[in-house]
Specification:
The protein has 16 helices and 17 strands. With about 500 residues, the protein is an alpha/beta fold. Helix 2 packs across helix 11 and helix 10 crosses helix 12.
Length: about 500
């Protein structure tokens, strides 16, 4: 990473001269994890940095003008150096402003660059700005881990073991859905082992609140730890998540874990409200056969939850989706989720004349838009998809790795299956298929999920169909697609099944 040396040199100059440093992060799991890890390493070198996480509805995403002003207010005295983590790559004007105020900037990030090019920072440590870099898979916490490693190679600390903080890197890597390839697999595997042994006090408390009964795996991080840490930022309390990861007080960690659980429940209620309203809007105006995209907005939707709803609708309809929260002045903040083959970053660039701003990743991005421009953006976005994708790309596909009988679903199979972990982006859980499956009992609805008791011949298996509560089920018998996991309850180990899709049973081709 070609600008790493410049970053290390500038940080050690701050260490040697006792300069005041501010760490400026994002409000999601990767952001708060990156701030936590960077604060830990700088503190180990004797610094006392100020940490700042913007509030989504007040300062917005990234290195915004409001965020900078509030960060400087929190610092008290003007810092000599601001280090941004999980943001900053596209903040050309904001970095230039900080430079004009006599403040140096280092950017540690993994987001795509803007059309304006590289910000005028002392160092921009971001593999995506480098040609043919092998490290574009890293999340921001992974970048901070590399920075910490580079600092320790330059100046060793006898009593500091960076490996002890791999659990922080692991949760960010899994929750930010970066590819679980190359080093990311190793960082995540070893980080999960540290979580199993104890590790970060805040994560231990969160594991207890979420009822972790098994050894932590990537699925637990994705569906339990990640959503609760993210819920703090979504519900405008990102400092709760940051304090949880940074505290050394067991009782305080327990209090904060319960607080994040409450944030998550509030997030779930808001999510269900927005999902129901958005679905109702689609029933009135959306044609799955003719419309290539989904773009919806409302003045009653919480901006912290629209991304989750965008993801739900994208998966249900297999359409690139933006869900937009509008304020009382008609300014909208939207989150988008995409399907393979449709780059949201490219779409935002192509539709820039309908937007105030936007950016992010190919599969997940954000935008700012005026209410009166939503229809024009929808039309431009639809045209972009028409011109840049084929009909075949727009068809949903579920790739089956193996067809199995229920009698094959044993703990011995699970032992072999788990050798391929950790699962995630670019290393997905294998998907199995079974034919001619019947129901043993009527489906049980648990919130928006379904619990199913299934039977194939003389073999039975319980399954969960997450977010299947609003999906019409065909009459049995079924062909089912599913993943498997290990479940431990009261000392008994069983194989659990997670339904991915259901269709009426068909004969062999």
């Amino acid at each position: 990473m070609r600008e790493m040396d410049a970053a290390v040199e500038r940080i050690f100059r701050a260490v040697d001269h006792g300069e005041h440093v501010c760490i400026y992060g994002d409000y999601d799991v990767d952001g708060v994890s990156s701030v936590t890890l960077l604060h830990t390493i700088l503190t180990a070198y004797g610094m006392r940095p100020t940490c700042f996480i913007p509030v989504r509805t007040k300062e917005g995403y990234g290195l915004s003008d409001d965020g900078i002003n509030h960060a400087l207010q929190k610092c008290g005295c003007k810092p000599a150096l601001i280090i941004t983590v999980d943001c900053g790559t596209s903040s050309v004007d904001e970095v230039a402003y900080l430079n004009s105020q006599g403040i140096d900037v280092i950017i540690l990030d993994h987001h795509e660059s803007s059309t304006q090019g590289r910000p005028p920072a002392v160092a921009v440590v971001n593999a995506k700005l480098e040609e043919n870099s092998p490290m574009t898979y890293l999340c921001s916490a992974g970048v901070v881990f590399k920075l910490a490693h580079a600092m320790l190679k330059r100046r060793r600390l006898a009593d500091f073991d960076l490996r002890n903080y791999l659990d922080i890197v692991a949760i960010a890597t899994v929750a930010d859905i970066v590819p679980l390839v190359a080093e990311n697999r190793l960082l995540t595997r070893h980080g999960l082992r540290i979580m199993a042994r104890g590790g970060n006090i805040g994560l231990q408390a969160l594991n207890e609140v979420t009822g972790l009964r098994n050894t932590p795996n990537a699925s637990h991080v994705s569906f339990r730890i990640g959503p609760r840490l993210n819920a703090a930022g979504r519900m405008d309390s990102p400092s709760d998540a940051l304090e949880l990861l940074m505290t050394h007080d067991v009782k305080r960690a327990q209090q904060l874990a319960l607080c994040l659980e409450a944030h998550n429940r509030a997030r779930q209620q808001e999510e269900e409200k927005i999902r129901a309203e958005a679905t109702s809007m689609l029933e009135c105006s959306f044609s799955p056969a003719n419309d290539r995209v989904i773009v919806l907005g409302s003045r009653t939707w919480h901006p912290g939850v629209v991304g989750i709803v965008a993801s739900l609708l994208m998966r249900r309809y297999h359409k690139p989706t933006f869900i937009i929260s509008l304020d009382e002045n008609g300014l909208g903040k939207g989150s988008g989720r995409s399907i393979p083959g449709v780059s949201l970053v490219q779409a935002i660039h192509e539709c820039a004349d309908t937007l105030v701003s936007g950016g992010g990743h190919e599969m997940a991005a954000g935008l700012v838009i005026r209410e009166e421009m939503i229809d024009k953006f929808r039309e431009a976005f639809d045209n972009f998809v028409l011109e840049n994708t084929s009909e075949e790309q727009l068809k949903p596909k579920l790739r089956i790795d193996a067809e199995v009988e229920f009698r094959d679903l044993t703990l011995e199979l699970l032992d072999s299956y788990e050798l391929m972990e950790p699962f995630g982006n670019a290393n997905p859980q294998p998907v199995f298929m079974s034919r001619n499956v019947m129901l043993s009992d009527a489906p049980r609805r648990l919130q928006n999920h379904l619990k199913l008791s299934l039977r194939q011949n003389n073999y039975e298996c319980d399954a969960m169909y997450f977010n299947g509560g609003n999906i019409p089920l065909p009459d049995p018998p079924w062909d089912i697609a599913f993943t498997i996991d290990r479940n431990v309850w009261r000392g008994r180990t069983t194989l659990s099944m997670s339904i991915q899709d259901i269709r009426p049973s068909q004969t062999h081709p």
